[in-house]
Amino acid sequence: MKPATALLAAASLALAGSVAARAAFFQPVAAVGAVNDDAVVEGMPRLLSQFGFFTDGAGQAPAARVTPYRLNTPLYSDGAEKLRFVYLPEGKRMEANGDGLIDFPVGTALIKTFAFGEGSKRRLIETRVLLHRESGWVALPYVWNAEQSDAALAIAGARMPVVTPAGEAISYRVPNKNQCKECHGLDDAVIPIGPKARNLSGEWLAANLGEVPAGADRLAVWEKRSAVGADAVARAYLDVNCAHCHRPGATASNSGLDLRWEQDDPHALGVMKRPVAAGRGAGGLLFDVVPGEPDQSILLHRMLSNDPGVAMPELGKSSIDREGTEAVRRWIEEMPR
Amino acid sequence: MFRMTIAAALLATAAPALAETHVVTPGDGAQERLQEALIIAQPGDEIVLEAGRYAMSDGLSLDVEGVTLRGAGMDGTVLDFTGQQGAGEGLLVTSDNVTLRDFALENPKGDGVKSKGADNIVYHRIRVTWTRGPHPENGAYGIYPVESTGILVDGVKVTGASDAGIYVGQSDRITVRNSIAEANVAGIEIENSRNALVAHNIATRNTGGILVFDLPSLPVMGGGNVIIENNLVVANDTPNFAPPGNIVAGVRRGTGIMVMANEKVLIENNILSGNPTAPVMVIAYVQPYDDARYNPLPREVVVGPNSYDGGGYDPQLDGAEMLLAAFGGELPPVLWDGLGSLAAVEGTAGWSLNLTEAGKGLGAAQPGPLSVKAPAAAFDRSGIGAPAALEARLGG
């Protein structure tokens, strides 16, 4: 069997939803400690281990050139613990692009594992990878097995029961491959969302880029947000949690709502803006944001809902973010009327 | 476009241009099997949904160009979203040249089918039904193409949408025809769009039958070049059940065809019967706005010959009793607010509020019989409607 055929066969197996391990179709796993560059730049490996991103998958111990990072203000995902890594191939470097998205070379992989539970009870649920190829970024979701020994490609997504850190039992949704694009799509291309210089620590940037660009490290560190004004906290939260769709060129562009950090027109940010196609999502309210009136603001109303068709964000949320909604409530309360 | 480049390349080498058919059957795992088919399909492929009822737990999405999704008929293949747990619509299409035909969606939690930035899309014999009938917690739109060029909606049926049954927004080159919109708040709505033909449809038991709107502060502005002809707009008398706050929540029960803030709209050869507020309503946008690009007035609207019967007999308007008394028990069929410009063929009965300023409410209204000029020239139809190439996909 030619390698290409084997690859297709492996891919179609994964696509057929087969979860059982079929050793005959495995590509050799990369040597421990080295990432399989071929898997990053082409194909759709059926198993996460085929990339070789981890020396110990269950322990999330990164291989060589796989660097962990954290975001100052993270995207809420039902309270999941998120372990983020960037892999850069030998001899390649990433570069700053102002305070915005880091420029990553072809061959880069961004890896994010979602886990629930602490200590010995931690269970890895899924790992999403974003692979930078010649043709652009490709997003693939992998779901961890019960033994926590590996994760398998789940192109159609999945649902599974989890208990959130808040103690809420939910049906956790692993997005399908297309849904990756709903958040990661901009002007018909797929791009990373998270690693923007403004949302990364200066220390990490200095160590990994060799520079700290102007405007870097500006979004609040979430755990330390009490030291920052309500406006800055909420705007950071909206930038990270909403603006990948609510901006020009992205999934929710037709709403006219633009929640990016750099947007400073109050109307574009929803202040006294009427909804366009919110339907019942508006909940009987008239404006996205009514200064001083969080309970009259559609934006908060939709964040506080779990009902599909009302709930925002539309994807990746099965439970309400108490901290995030509190931050947005304060922002609206303190907004000058 | 984002897709599985490597698989595409391999297929191209092995078997160029050989379209495949992927057959999906109802039963266990239908959600995953159908979604997988929507992902692995290659341009030109057809996905066949065999007859039966499919229990859906999540929204579906298609992002491959040139795919046909075909069921066994709008009553034969039913995607049942009653148990939907996530996503804002039943099916989301984000790729160009897609054909959707011969299947139904029931009870999606949000919108039915949304296509965004999906040029040259065909919706043929698709049914979207909220089975409990009008209800404010039904999804907003049944058929929802937006930000697209080239849209053909033919032979669809939408019932129960809490906003618009068939809604086309921020788009260009549109045809909506041979379709039925029943018991929605708005039957058919064309919003911030250009070059739209709405013809041979039935709009009945909605709050308002056919609406042509232009709204401020949207990415795409300047709606116009719209033809509404040969439609049956009958008994649009369902009380408005839209959640408050939506623009259509302001639509009066019993509105037949309504034009708000648009340019070059032709309304002719429609049958308008039993629309108790106004068979035809032409008005300016009434809310305050802050958008220099926006013109709130209806301009160059033309009312051609239409058949009017039983209109304006129970208007949901302030001062209805006095108005009815003044006009002899029934308002004339065409209502204009007096703003912008309107022409109507000779013999068109109507009345005007004779407003002089937009957005100032009805305080200055001086109702009187409609007195407007006849159309000066034939309506320019060039470039209106979906590109002819979309027709070819309707065979079979």
Automatic annotation (TrEMBL), chain A:
InterPro entries: SO_2930-like_C (IPR022269). Keywords: Signal. Residues 1-23 form the signal peptide. This is Cytochrome c domain-containing protein. It comes from Qipengyuania gaetbuli. The lineage of its organism: Bacteria, Pseudomonadati, Pseudomonadota, Alphaproteobacteria, Sphingomonadales.
UniProtKB/TrEMBL annotation, chain B:
The keyword Membrane does not apply. Keywords: Repeat, Signal, Ubl conjugation pathway. SMART domains: PbH1. InterPro entries: Beta_helix, Para_beta_helix_rpt-2, PbH1, Pectin_lyas_fold, Pectin_lyase_fold/virulence, SCF-Subunits/Alg-Epimerases, SO_2930-like_dom. Residues 138-281 form the Right handed beta helix domain. Pathway: Protein modification; protein ubiquitination. Residues 1-19 form the signal peptide. This is Right handed beta helix domain-containing protein. It comes from Qipengyuania gaetbuli. The lineage of its organism: Bacteria, Pseudomonadati, Pseudomonadota, Alphaproteobacteria, Sphingomonadales.
